[in-house]
Each structure stands twice: as structure tokens, then as C-alpha cells.
Design brief:
It is built from 12 helices and 2 strands, in the order H-H-E-E-H-H-H-H-H-H-H-H-H-H. The chain is an all-alpha fold and 293 residues long. The chain has a two-stranded antiparallel sheet.
Length: 293
């Protein structure tokens, strides 16, 4: 018996050590990525000038007199991500509410399978479907010369973030104690009122986490938006061809060299810092909301 207890304690210590190593490796990977991007991206920002690089409106990396202004990429990424969140989050949240609280068992199972399928579809397939279906529809619907624009990219991104938003939001809604719902119904509230006035507010931290994951998916996508956004370095217009931060790196890295290559690493650094800033801001909002509660 004593030997079994010693073996169990040894196994517990070994597993704790394993978990600690995995956690430290995760931190190490983030630090290495950060250090690599800083070392690779700072030289171009220094050579070009922070103001000219971040707020310049012209990107002509292969011209005789090159220009490396990435403001169009930054604004396009911001507008595209915000548009995708405005469309995708409400749809995803309502779908999560339906799955968690209102769907019949068979219907809910079918919808969950479809959501899981959406999560497993490669980005290039989203881009291909968007290029074949969404781009022509946008062109015909709005009578445009070309349907590859920011609006098409927003629609594709909104569809792509749905699996993350739905899955995480559904889990958060289901984790709300059953007593909350029973107490609300006992006080005379309808099921719909209970869901949107009691359960959803109680699950807001998990829903915000779903939004964070959606933002990360939207702002980090490259291949799909490259196929439907036109991939032209213009200042963003809803029905104009645009280029995102991610697509700027992906489209030119294969043939870049010298300062152009360094500038692409600088774009990656800006994108990395942008995502970090969004995560920090949303984490602060979550913690503040929890303290207010």
C-alpha cells in the first residue's frame, strides 16, 4: 500500500513537471517570435522613418523610387476586421443561443456538425468559394466593374469567424448555472427574456473570449482575403480593391529582397503588435466587467 502511494505521488510530481514545461515552452515560443520580429522589423522602420512607414499612403515597393507607406494596409485590416465582427458576431451569438437553449435535439446536432465542418474547411477553400460565388454576386448586385473588393472580403471573413464565435459562445452559455434560468422563469420572465437578460449577460466573459478569437481569425487571415479583396494597395473603400496587412506580406515575400524584405518583416511586426494590443484591451475590459459584477 505504501509503495502504491509513493508511486502515485511520483506520478503526480512528474505530471506537474510536464505541465510546467509545456507552459514554459509556450511562453518561450511567444518570446522567440517577438524577438525575431523585433530584430527583423526594426531596421526597416528606422531606415524608412516611423512616420513615413506607419502613416504613408503610398506603397510602391518595386518602383524606381520605392515608397513604403502602410497606412492603407492598416486601415484596410481595421475596417475589414470590424466589418466581419459586426456581421459575424451577432449571427454567431444568435446561433449559439439557439444551439444552447432553444434547438430540438436532432436539429441542434445537425447544426453543430455543420459548424464543425465550417471550422475544418481550409482558408483557400473559403477564398475559392468567395471568388466564384461572392465576388460575382457583389459585382452584379451593386453594378460594379469588379466584385473583388473590401465588401467581399468582409463577407468571407464574417463566414470564417462563425465557427469560433458559435462554439465558444455556446460553451459559455451552457456553463451558466441552471439556477439563474429557473429563478428568472419563476419570477415570470419569458424564455426569450431569460436568455437575453439573464443568461447572455452572465456568460459575457466567455462571449467576449469568442469575439477575441474571431478578431484573431479575421485579422490574421491571408489566403482567403487575397483571393476576394483585389490585392491592390489602395486606401480602403467599401467597394474598392484593397490589400490587408497579411496579404501584403504573403504576396511579396517570395520575390522580395533588401529593404523591401525588411519592410515586409516590419509589417509583420505591426500586425503582431496590433493583435497583442487588441488582446490586452479586451482582457482589461473582461476583468473590469468581472469586477463590476
Amino acid at each position: 500500500m505504501e509503495r502504491i502511494k509513493k508511486t502515485a505521488k511520483w506520478m503526480e510530481k512528474a505530471m506537474n513537471l510536464l505541465f510546467l514545461v509545456c507552459g514554459l515552452l509556450t511562453i518561450l515560443f511567444v518570446l522567440l517570435i517577438t524577438i525575431f520580429l523585433v530584430i527583423s522589423g526594426i531596421p526597416a522602420i528606422h531606415n524608412i522613418g516611423p512616420v513615413d512607414f506607419l502613416f504613408g499612403k503610398v506603397w510602391l515597393s518595386t518602383a524606381a523610387k520605392p515608397s513604403y507607406g502602410i497606412l492603407p494596409f492598416i486601415l484596410t485590416s481595421v475596417y475589414g476586421t470590424c466589418g466581419a465582427i459586426l456581421i459575424g458576431v451577432p449571427v454567431g451569438l444568435f446561433c449559439a443561443v439557439f444551439l444552447a437553449k432553444m434547438s430540438p435535439r436532432k436539429t441542434g446536432s445537425l447544426v453543430r456538425n455543420v459548424v464543425d465542418l465550417l471550422a475544418g474547411i481550409p482558408s483557400v477553400v473559403y477564398g475559392l468559394v468567395g471568388m466564384i460565388i461572392i465576388v460575382p454576386c457583389v459585382r452584379e448586385l451593386f453594378h460594379l466593374p469588379d466584385g473583388a473588393n473590401l465588401f467581399s472580403a468582409i463577407l468571407v471573413l464574417a463566414i470564417m469567424i462563425l465557427p469560433s464565435v458559435i462554439s465558444v459562445s455556446e460553451t459559455a452559455i451552457k456553463s451558466v448555472p441552471r439556477e439563474y434560468e429557473e429563478a428568472s422563469l419563476a419570477l415570470g420572465a419569458t424564455k426569450t427574456e431569460t436568455v437575453f437578460k439573464v443568461i447572455v449577460p452572465a456568460a459575457k466573459s466567455g462571449i467576449v473570449t469568442a469575439v477575441v478569437l474571431g478578431i484573431g481569425r479575421a485579422i490574421g487571415e491571408a489566403m482567403a482575403v487575397m483571393m476576394v479583396a483585389g490585392n491592390v494597395a489602395n486606401m480602403p473603400k467599401l467597394f474598392g480593391s484593397v490589400r490587408f496587412l497579411t496579404t501584403a506580406v504573403a504576396s511579396e515575400m517570395s520575390y522580395s529582397s533588401g529593404l523591401q524584405r525588411q519592410a515586409l518583416f516590419s509589417i509583420a511586426l505591426v500586425l503582431f503588435l496590433f493583435i497583442m494590443a487588441i488582446n490586452l484591451i479586451l482582457n482589461v475590459i473582461i476583468k473590469k466587467g468581472e469586477q463590476d459584477d
